[in-house]
């Protein structure tokens, strides 16, 4: 479902060069929950941003759901990104819009008619357990509820792939558990493929089928979580 092949990314800033991604390859099968774990600075967010070409790798290829994103123009990419959902550590909600307005946002961008938007928003809020909260504003919500809004919005375009950028890092352990359980349910019920980055082994143990360990821009180990846990 996601094929990352030999991608390289070097940052040059103030005479210094940092190899954020050094010949990274990984393959996420359809319906899999795949985790990339590593310390701060390992290259995880650069990797995740490369999947949607928000960051263009210097070389290598990224194929998502059969489309070679590395070969697309910016214009084609905007369409391809609609098939990829993304959630963030700090949720990324619009504070001036209510919950329904946040979830509807991607549907407005693609020009879905108002009736269709309303139907879809209600369905998404139900799916993530936020029934009845459409008129609440982000500031009125708990962290866990905000992330549920983030997840609903990410799913608005019915993506086949969900990317998670430290989605539970700002949450307490109990809330983390409930968000991971939601992601697992969406994975099972919708067949959603999930690629997540995290610095927490517990997250990998809790929901990932497979994982890769990143260190200094390279993948040092990868395999099924069961395999990785018995190896270390
Ligand atoms: P992680 O997500 O694992 O913390 P990052 O992908 O954010 O790691 O960063 C990997 C390396 O690339 C770090 O050394 C970081 O300082 C560097 N880096 C990330 N983004 C930039 C950028 N825009 N400009 C320069 N260096 C960057
Ligand atoms: P509108 O008057 O079109 O509802 P809002 O700013 O209140 O405008 O809503 C923003 C977006 O959220 C719109 O795309 C709208 O279709 C959607 N929306 C608003 N309320 C609901 C709701 N209760 N259920 C589903 N979708 C809603």
Automatic annotation (TrEMBL):
<keyword id="KW-1003">Cell membrane</keyword>
<keyword id="KW-0547">Nucleotide-binding</keyword>
<dbReference type="GO" id="GO:0005524">
    <property type="term" value="F:ATP binding"/>
</dbReference>
<protein>
    <submittedName>
        <fullName>ATP-binding cassette domain-containing protein</fullName>
    </submittedName>
</protein>
<keyword id="KW-0067">ATP-binding</keyword>
<feature type="domain" description="ABC transporter">
    <location>
        <begin position="2"/>
        <end position="232"/>
    </location>
</feature>
<keyword id="KW-0472">Membrane</keyword>
<keyword id="KW-0813">Transport</keyword>
<keyword id="KW-1278">Translocase</keyword>
<keyword id="KW-0029">Amino-acid transport</keyword>
